Amino acid sequence: MQKSIIFMTLFAAATITASAQEKKVTWINNVKLSGYALTQYQYSGQEGAKSNSFNIRLARVSLDGRVMQDFYWKAQIQFNGNTSTLGSSPRVVDLFAEWQKFEFFRVKIGQYKRPFTFENPMNPIDQGFMGYGQNIQKLAGFSDRAGGNASNGRDIGLQFQGDFLKNAAGRNLLHYQVGVFNGQGINVKDVDQQKDIIGGMWVMPVAGMRIGAFGWTGSYARKGTWTNDQGQPVSGTRRLQQRRYALSGEYLVNDWTFRSEYIHSTGLAFAKTMQSTSETNCDLSANGNKADGVYALVIAPVIQKTCHVKARYDLYRPNGEWSKARTQYEIGADYEFTKNFEISAEYARINDRSLAKHNYDIIDVQVSFRF
């Protein structure tokens, strides 16, 4: 009898252990390691600043997974660069969790892409060109004109989003997204206790087409010193109000891509970009309180899903006027050996009216891979 009880006890313990191990394995299987890298060669013929160099443009590794099916999480780190500045040091770019139980209402919290424009959330490889549009880089939180640290279009906050209004084929026709953010960029706490409100909505009238509008209201702030209008030194927290909107359109059909976005910004900017948390220079940029930009691009297949040719018109006006307008006229091609390995090349003619010699050329070649 005693032996029977001992055997049954051991059998029950083994069953519980096996069950626990099975649950643990399930958890492990839900975690995925991935990443990508872009290596680059670029020539620039800008007068007085010519360059000709190989470069590691990006190198990122991420972990993501699910918890109880309803929750998705992701952590992503960028490794290339040095460790001396906010702009180029290895750093956390994504760290968030999202409740995804309902398609029409999802909740995300942490550090992730601002819900502003179509191009901002795109993977740098999928975006299609040697870099994001100038208006995206300057007005969507990359190397933002306001003076914030390089943030790859991201901030820390809370966001609600969803898709709804299905048609007869079961395809959603409307998408919305709105969030509240610190307004200071990645890996930085709020400074002025005023949050940014960013959101957008788009319609999808036919498969592959999106037509959207976005809005952004908030501030960018910095603690330090500056000179006031009377020429006297002032210290404290300086808050710069920011108001932005974007109009966006995209159509993807038969491996063709058409995309265009216009962004307008109202708000002053700091003269010096924050590259360290010890930055205290709060003097203002001479570019004033207006800026805008627009890009329009087309990517056409030569061999579907394998080889493409492309062209982009890319304009940015840092002061909202033509006196400092910078325009890129780009043509290029890419070849995808597999879905995880691609080579692309571009030629760009630059017209920068802020330079004494406006025109120069850029040649860019990139090899990208994912795992």
Account of the 3D structure:
The protein has 371 residues and is mainly beta. Helices cover 9% and strands 55% of the residues. It is built from two helices and 16 strands. It has a 16-stranded antiparallel beta barrel with strand order 1-2-3-4-5-6-7-8-9-10-11-12-13-14-15-16. It is globular, with a radius of gyration of 24 Å. Mean pLDDT is 91; it is low at 1-22.
Descriptive keywords:
single chain, about 375 residues, mainly beta, 16-stranded antiparallel β-barrel, 2 helices, disordered N terminus
N-to-C order of helices and strands: HEEEEEHEEEEEEEEEEE
Largest sheet: 16 strands, antiparallel, barrel
The outline comes out as globular
Q: Cα distance, first to last residue?
A: 58 Å
Radius of gyration: 24 Å
* Number of extended strands: 16
* Count of alpha/pi helices: 2
Helicity level, as a percent range? under 10%
Average pLDDT level: 91
Brief account:
The chain has 2 helices and 16 strands. It has 371 residues and is mainly β. The protein is globular, with a radius of gyration of 24 Å.
SSE map:
Layout lengths: L1 H28 L2 E13 L6 E17 L3 E8 L12 E12 L2 E9 L20 H6 L14 E13 L5 E10 L14 E8 L5 E19 L5 E21 L2 E11 L23 E14 L3 E11 L8 E13 L2 E12 L6 E12 L1
Antiparallel strand pairs: 1-2, 1-16, 2-3, 3-4, 4-5, 5-6, 6-7, 7-8, 8-9, 9-10, 10-11, 11-12, 12-13, 13-14, 14-15, 15-16
